[in-house]
């Protein structure tokens, strides 16, 4: 790939640009790694949106945004001096042509736009001559179901080769997740026991205290299952369950994660989600308090259509039908307005088949917890008690991950700007993720799975364990 000269951000006035993209660029610019810094040193950031914005206003937004990434004000102003803004509708070929006419060097076209607009914009790009080497970057969700994802992929491959497409899932830029690969593949402790003979279950949980926070336009048509499980958490599962790749280049790594997801389906064994006979459950928050802040019921949030029965808490059980993982349930859960939210990957090991007579006390299973926020690794072991060496207690081995130099979006943008799609979602994987959750979505639409309630500020419905 040619060296990127211009980063075009469609949706430049949106929250994603201000809160994540620009700080991510800033973390690259502030990086002590000269190779990372060189990726953005001469980069032009060309913002575009349907609203009017002066060049000066856009440059000020760039200064503030990359400043959040750790760039000093003088360096931020120097970087932003090259930034420009073009008003335009990304779904109109004539506007796209006018935007591309302002591009210098190889462009990255970053679609910080709602999924429905992205499909229209990609269709419009098919009517425009793209500069050689053009890179496309798209935010999840990729389509609205397996069929639309396949259609979007067909459109994209008419424009550029797959290697020049970055389907962004910022969870893949999570330093702790990348650290998990080091724990598995660079040591002798975990990999020999990383299988169904030794692991009883795996839970991947990402709950949050926040409620809707003004995102009704997107969230009320998506819900927790599509927003989090179908994308982020299935990507995490693919890394937890992958076979050791021969290398961590983009081809070997993405092929290994794709293999996991091709083997993944909803759980078909004995129920593993308490209170349900199926493999999924859903709920929606009612009014409540979190950290002294009152939240209205989800159905009373501005822009919400109660008749959609959108869930704000989703949980599914899946199985990975490979020799390594057969019989091990993987539980994926994410919810909003949850008190003391867990954000972690928790691996529960099977109890030992034999314990010598005379050892008593805690027989709780050993666990490995990989914390996402805060970033940490914790191994829970059976150890001898202080007062009685024959009385078992639980002991913890714990370490915190080092503070990352780059933000999650800094990690993602490093791959986009350097032409390395390792941390991007491949087209076939995007389609597989929709296939996996489709039966749950259908059962929910048909009313086969009840929509439970839980108070904002609680841990979830009272009948969920």
Kindly summarize this structure in a few lines.
34% of the residues lie in helices and 24% in strands. It is of the alpha/beta class and 465 residues long. Helix 1 (15-29) packs across helix 3, helix 1 (15-29) crosses helix 11 (408-418) and helix 6 (115-125) packs parallel to helix 7.
Description:
This protein is α/β, with parallel strands linked by helices and 465 residues long. The protein has two domains: 136 residues, NAD(P)-binding Rossmann-like Domain (Rossmann fold, 3-Layer(aba) Sandwich), CATH 3.40.50; 284 residues, Dihydrodipicolinate Reductase, domain 2. The chain has twelve helices and 20 strands. The strands form three sheets. Strands 7, 8, 9, 12, 13, 14, 15, 16, 17, 18 and 20 form an eleven-stranded mixed beta sheet that branches. Strand 5, helix 7 and strand 6 form a beta-alpha-beta unit. Helix 7 packs antiparallel against helix 12 and helix 10 packs parallel to helix 12. The longest helix has 26 residues. The chain is globular and about 80 Å long. The model has no long low-confidence stretch (mean pLDDT 92).
